Amino acid sequence: MLVVLAAAGDAPATALVERWRFAGASLLTARDLSTAGWRVWPGAPADGVAVVDGASMAVREIGAVLTRVPAVTTRDVPWILRADRAYVAQEMTAFLLAWLSELECPVVNRPSPTGLWGPHIAPERWMRLAVDAGLRVAAPQTGGVRVTVAGDRCIGDVTEDLCAGALTVARTAGVEILAVRFDGHGPGAAFLGADYRLAVTDGAVADALLDLLAGVPM
Amino acid sequence: VILLWGLEADSPLAAVRAQLEEIGAPTVFVDQREVLGARLDDGRLQLSSGTVDLAEVTAAYMRPYESNKLPVVARAGEAAQRRVAAFDEGLWAWAEAAPALVVNRPSAMAHNGSKPYQVNQARALGFAVPETLLTTDPAAVLAFLAEHGDVIYKSISAVRSVVTRLRASGLDRLQDVASCPTQFQAYVPGTDHRVHVVGDGVYCCRIESTADDYRYAIREATVVERRPTALPAEWADRCRALARLEGLHVAGVDLRLTPAGEWCCFEINPSPAFTYYDTPGHEIARAVAGLLATAPVPA
Description:
The complex is a heterodimer. Chain A is an alpha/beta fold. Helix content of chain A is 29%, strand content 20%. Chain A has five helices and eleven strands, in the order E-H-E-E-E-E-E-H-E-H-E-E-H-E-E-H. In chain A, helix 2 links the parallel strand 6 and strand 7. In chain A, helix 3 (123-132) packs across helix 4 (160-173). Chain B is of the alpha+beta class. Chain B is 28% helix and 26% strand. The longest helix of chain B is centred in the N-terminal third of the chain and has 20 residues, at 78-97. Chain B has helices at 11-22, 71-74, 78-97, 106-109, 115-124, 138-148, 233-245, 283-293; strands at 2-6, 27-31, 39-41, 44-47, 50-53, 59-62, 101-103, 132-135, 151-154, 164-165, 182-186, 191-198, 201-208, 225-229, 250-257, 263-269. In chain B, the strands form four sheets. Chain B has a five-stranded antiparallel sheet. A four-stranded parallel sheet of chain B has the order 2-1-6-7, covered by helices on one side. A four-stranded antiparallel sheet of chain B has the order 8-11-9-10, covered by helices on one side. Chain A binds chain B through residues 33-43, 49, 51, 80, 87-88, 90-95, 97-99, 101-102, 112-114, 119-120, 122, 124-125, and chain B through 93, 96-97, 106-107, 110-111, 113-117, 119-120, 123, 129, 131-138, 140, 155-159, 177-182. Strand 3 (39-40) of chain A pairs antiparallel with strand 8 of chain B, so a sheet runs across the interface.
């Protein structure tokens, strides 16, 4: 089974799960963390029981996890008393960090104490990594031409040198999946920024992610 | 110059500040009570006491409270609160990236955001750790209780919670665990020890208490006795390794020595209130001050 950990309102994640339904994909949201059934023994992750899409399942049945959130927030738990939401969100985030970090199956990205979807990296640090990768950089900004790194694969309409730079940035940051933005398609285009918000509605990105999660050699 | 950030009345900050003054180390104190008048522009801190170029800071001791909970900020209105939040964010961003020695960087402190995550790191370094269940399942809690007989529960995250014994009177609230994963641990008997790691230094304090959580012993009308003690070298090394693994220059490691002679690790505090455990000679405060004062000048 493939698990996509996402916010309940993450429409691209829902669409991705539908696309991957044939591979046994299911959506895990904060609602599942408010459902009786979880049993996790730190130090023995495979013996646990998870709740995914409302159903209890043995953790050993989970083949891979794709994480689409940095943390559980108060907005994710509207059914909890307002006064308790911040506490519950923090507890759920802490629980997920402990659980995801111990799973023996592929988890992309591996969680970090600074973010469930990978380490929090400030824009200035991304710039430094890009410079170290031999890329030209421009002031951090949104938008631009987006490429996706998924393992050793780079998906996007840019030249090879930009792809090579994006792969190096991801590798140096210690992450397997990454969205990298440039100010153009051609040689020498400048790096604008990077984040973990992948365009999973793009079929090529979805296919590359599925290969990565399934352990298909790239 | 050494940067100190927090409240004047904060005991660890005051203790370190006093020690730095005693050795004549140059310091700049970023007083949180004056945050409304503080600015951070282009790597320069504008304070009521003057301007500080952050590039000249060799070391920093970060002990801020949540600014938005300070009365002076809470009363100040939304625009001022946004400005304060931006100031705090800017100073934390500097702390994360600065070439200075920072006690401690935000990314290092983040490990404390999940206690079971931390405890897994301690286990990997050879510490004993309590049998733990994280669950939303009341039936699993009952089974865990039946297996271990004596069970405590506490928060999973860094939110401070009172460690509490699971008693028969609490079982009627057990259905509540379905709302949110909750952490249960087999009770570990023994004697608490708080170990402070400061650079390469290790300072151990033995704590005698019959309370479930000695920090709140007063609620159980029990007495807490503290006295400095030597930690066996092997375990001192492991405490150093644990702090290093998390990237912490100063850490408070909560250990319990069991009757079987095992050292059980519960948590690593990245911003320890060490003054409660310090010796009359302020050994730990002096060590923190020494660490800050001897930090190399960044290239």
